Amino acid sequence: MNDQTKAGLLATLIAFFIWGLGPIYFKFLAPATAVEVSMHRAIWACVFVGLWLAVVGGFAEVRALFLQPRTLALLAISSLLITFNWFAYAWAVMNEQIAQASLGYFISPLINVLLGFVFLQEQFNRLRWIAVGLAALGVLNQVVLVGSVPLLALSLAFTFGFYGLLRKTVKAEAGPGLFIETLIVMPFLLVGLLWLETNGQGHAFNAGWGLPLLLVLGGALIAIPLFLFSYGARRLNLATVGLIQYIAPSMQFGLALWYGETFGWSQIMTFVLIWSGLALYTWDMRHQMSLK
Q: What's this model's pTM, rounded to 2 decimal places?
């Protein structure tokens, strides 16, 4: 394992650990809504990343990226994917759906495996196919026994999976790429926040100092792990990123239990099937690494 791979591995591990603690942050944001929180987080993430680029002299690469139409178009797509993902996750946590959010991120690593196979020609064997199949059975169990398609979980899994695929393939380093992604949606978010404030539904100026400070802090909680994730995704294969990714949903599932969310046997079976797929995939990954 070379130094670049080690650095990418460490960065990715830290990113998912921070994301795993995310639900704790959202519990302190009432009465702000998920829409308002998501807009603030994206805007302040852009500000924080911009300040960091100014310090390290990274705006030369930003200017270069703006001169590459294809790269800019891919970043626009990844911007939409991650913005939707932020909103869906915020809505889930703030509406006592942490378990649904964790289910989405349990599915996401196996979505990464499929995307790596389809788009990047990453190879995987029979055991990995079985792992993916177990996850699919988990989703099918949710549909048949629970009687509902886990749309929230699937939307989180697929948006983050495709975001990871784009960030791995687009030729943009973590900081400049994230700055452009948040800058693209910035005008729309500013208009949205202005509308909320003028209609008395915003909390940036009329909620004391605690809540506005937390809304600003949300930008850092986006920028830091997403920067680390983007850095790591460019230095690891997509399957490895998918393997590391289940650290966050495991922590989130534990928090769902801590906060008192209830589960029936059918929902538990959904998690068991997906965990079994992940366990099988993890065992196979370790076995393959031991042979090298």
A: 0.81
What's the total number of domains in the chain? 1
Give long-range contacts, CB 8 A cutoff, 24+ apart: 75-80: 75/170, 75/172, 75/177, 75/180, 75/181, 75/184, 76/184, 77/166, 78/163, 78/166, 78/167, 78/170, 78/177, 78/181, 79/180, 79/181, 79/182, 79/184, 79/185, 80/185
Please give the structure tokens belonging to residue 82.
């991650």
Is 130 exposed, middle or buried, given 0-12, 13-18 or 19+ CB atoms closer than 10 A?
A: middle
Contact 192, 38 (CB under 8 A): no
pLDDT tens digits, one per residue of 27-43: 888 889 999 999 999 99
| Domain ranges, residue 133 | 3-290
Hey, is 170 helix, strand or coil?
A: coil
Cis peptide before 31 (omega within 30 of 0): yes
